[in-house]
Fold each of these.
Amino acid sequence: MAGSNLRRFKNPEVLRNFSFKHLIEMLNRYKGYFDRMQFSYSETDEENFDYDGLANILSNQMFVGEYEELFNGFALVGATSQECFNEVLHAFISKSAYAGELTPTMSTADMALLVYLHDPEELNVLESDYAAVKKKSFSMRATRRDLHDLVITPEQILAFEESMNDIFQSKNYGNTARVTLTENDSHEIVLLIRHGESYKRQGIVMNGKKSKTIGFQPESYNTLCINRTTGELRLGIPTSPKWMEDAYSTVLGKVLFDDYEAFSVPRINDLEKIKELGRNVLIYHGDANVRISLVSVKAYISEESGMKEILEAEDGDLFRDMEMYKFKLSSRGRIIKAKFLVKIGKAERTITLDASNRSGYDYDDFGMIVDAWLRQVGIIRTLTKEEEANYVGFLAGECKIAAAV
């Protein structure tokens, strides 16, 4: 089911964003449910349609188990009716067989409903793909292999899917993995993995005083992006469970190169660059109007101590405060977390980085500029072979963050 729930439909005005024709077509698919709820609309025009009544039905669901597809459908359309999906939906419909139905006056909600009416699964993929790509805190790995000419075959995708299913089954996630191969606007290879999570049970309300328990596996999506230019693998996965990062990386390496260790090279956030470069770590070289300030750092009190402290700016500029109090950051031990305020044009975000192999930002247009800056100043870098053992040991022991290998 889509990440959105049905609460947005408590406001009847949200339903008015749909063209009346498409809304009625959606209702007709589940006419049995609306007849059961005694909601009559077949002889009603747009002006007299009971939007309040429909909003009430969608917000106070009954018989969910019997009409799960209805509520999942409206939730999916609701999730993809947000303005951020406008360009995604428009581009998708423009390339579809029903592109002739696209009009300049269509709202985002109406485009989402149009896609759903033609192919619900396609809308589901658009929503999950968008959510996965925009997911924060990607894990990063790299390879020392040349990936410039890498092409993944359908046979390799099938082998990857089967191997991941073996792992998912062993973790009580079921035989649910389905892998889709695409390419994004940056010409990266993208593997979108749909899978079930661990089995759950939940009570649902039936008619009157009745209720029943249903068992289900929540649907989840992960994204693996392979940058053929940099030789990096970006994993859009949660920080937990810990086994997932290793599973995806090792299985992918085995399938593509017959080498479980192909994507074992740590690509890390080297926060010690803040000490080395001082204020120069805030400099961005590029066309965008970027302003950056260091807000706080978390570091060990000394190289020998296991105690940590947080240094936080009084006025949003930690370098200015340290200069004012003549404080030397080099007097502290390893930096394990840093927070920056990044302004690009009129937009601004707080970026938090751990000394690990995970990003701390969305990988959208804003995040790609942040990524470029971090690479320019050397915070994002790939470890040398000599550094790998010590760094992985540090991550696993001191930081308690998932190691990169």
Amino acid sequence: MGFKDSHKKRAAGVQSFLSSNKLFVVIALVAAIIIGTGLIKGNTVEVPASETEQTEEASPPQWRFYPSDLVVLLVGGGFCTVMIIRERKKAKEGLD
């Protein structure tokens, strides 16, 4: 019975968070869709037979910055900023 009670409390907390942060939810969904489509398209690259012989001499793959990386960084940074501001506000109210 303790599990059901704690589950109900957590579910209520998540629902209240989602209802008060609708913009964050929309941004997170858009980012997830962009990242998901990027991963699906990224896995369908075909390598011609002539290039498979050259892979032994080729340099190691380099890190690339994709537009979806920027979306993830902006959404994550924005979310962290909002949470930091909320915590500061709570701390100030606690001092008063």
